[in-house]
Specification:
about 280 residues, alpha/beta, Metallo-beta-lactamase, Chain A, seven-stranded mixed sheet, 7 helices
C-alpha cells in the first residue's frame, strides 16, 4: 500500500502542473466608443466580437469603432454576439457583417429572428442564443445565462443576453444592459467570483443588476463602457466589494494566458496587433 501511494503522489503532482500550464495569450479589447458597447476577443486564430454600438445620443460617428477594428490585426470574425438591438449596442450589425463577416460567421442574439432592419446579412447566418446554451468557439467556452425567456424580442434592456466566456481558469461575464435577478437563482455557480465583468447599462443609474447578484458575481476587474466609472464603483463599495474599476475613456486591453491577467489602459489602435504577451 505504501508503495502504491509513493507512485501515486508524483502522478498527481504532474497532473496538477499540467492543468496549471498557461495557454497562449488571449486578448480582450474594450473599445472606447463613448457610452456604447464593443468588445473584441482574440486568441490563436479565433476572433469574437461582442456588440457593435455607436454613441448615438451625442451624434457620434461609427468610424472610431471601425478604425480600431481595422487596425486590430484580423481580417474576419468567427462569431458576433449582440446583447440586444439598441443603437448603442447593435446599430452597426450589417456593416460589421459586410466588412468582417465570412460564410461561416455566426451572429448570435437574444431573439428568434434578427430584426428586418439588419437583413439581409451580407455574410454568415443568425442564431438565437438561449438560456443554458453552451458553445465552444476555438479556445473559448461560452455559457448563456440569460435572458430567462426565449420569447424576448431583443428590443429592450430586459432582453439583454448575459453570457460567460471561459478561457483556461479565467471567466469573463458580458451583460448587455440588464441582469435579471433570476440569473442568480438559475446560474449561481457559473456567475460566482467572476474575473472580469462588463458592467451592465454602461454604469448608468438606475443600476441594472441586483445587490445579491452583484455580491455573488464579486468580480476582480470591472469594465465600464462609458465614463460613468463612479456610479459603478460607488454601487460596489456600498456592497463592500472592491474590484478594480476601469472606464472606457480610452481603449482598454486585457491579456490572459488562462491564469494571469495583464491590463493596459489608453491603448492606441493597432498597439496590440499581432502581440501575444
Amino acid at each position: 500500500m505504501r508503495k502504491f501511494f509513493c507512485l501515486l503522489l508524483p502522478c498527481l503532482l504532474l497532473l496538477t502542473l499540467a492543468q496549471a500550464e498557461p495557454l497562449p495569450y488571449m486578448q480582450l479589447h474594450q473599445i472606447d466608443i463613448g457610452c456604447a458597447d464593443a468588445y473584441l476577443l482574440m486568441a490563436e486564430d479565433t476572433v469574437i466580437l461582442v456588440d457593435c454600438g455607436t454613441d448615438t445620443d451625442v451624434g457620434a460617428s461609427p468610424e472610431p469603432l471601425f478604425d480600431y477594428l481595422d487596425q486590430a490585426g484580423f481580417s474576419s470574425i468567427d462569431a458576433h454576439f449582440v446583447t440586444h438591438y439598441h443603437n448603442d449596442h447593435a446599430i452597426n450589425i450589417d456593416e460589421i457583417s459586410r466588412r468582417y463577416g465570412k460564410d461561416s460567421t455566426v451572429l448570435y442574439g437574444p431573439s428568434k429572428e434578427l430584426p428586418e432592419r439588419f437583413l439581409p446579412l451580407p455574410h454568415g447566418t443568425y442564431c438565437q442564443l438561449k438560456d443554458y446554451d453552451t458553445l465552444d468557439i476555438g479556445p473559448f467556452h461560452i455559457q448563456c445565462v440569460g435572458p430567462e425567456s426565449d420569447e424576448m424580442t431583443g428590443e429592450d434592456n430586459y432582453s439583454s443576453l448575459n453570457f460567460i466566456v471561459t478561457y483556461g481558469e479565467r471567466t469573463f461575464f458580458f451583460t448587455g444592459d440588464y441582469v435579471h435577478y433570476t440569473v442568480r437563482e438559475r446560474h449561481l455557480n457559473e456567475i460566482s467570483n467572476i474575473d472580469v465583468l462588463s458592467f451592465p447599462h454602461h454604469g448608468l443609474t438606475p443600476i441594472c443588476i441586483s445587490n445579491k447578484t452583484m455580491k455573488a458575481v464579486a468580480p476582480k476587474i470591472v469594465l465600464v463602457p462609458s465614463n460613468n466609472r463612479w456610479d459603478a464603483k460607488n454601487f460596489m463599495q456600498s456592497l463592500n466589494l472592491e474590484p478594480d474599476v476601469y472606464a472606457s475613456n480610452g481603449h482598454i486591453v486585457i491579456l490572459c494566458d488562462g491564469i494571469d491577467l495583464k491590463l493596459y489602459t489608453h491603448v492606441s489602435p493597432g498597439q496590440f496587433a499581432g502581440k501575444i504577451g
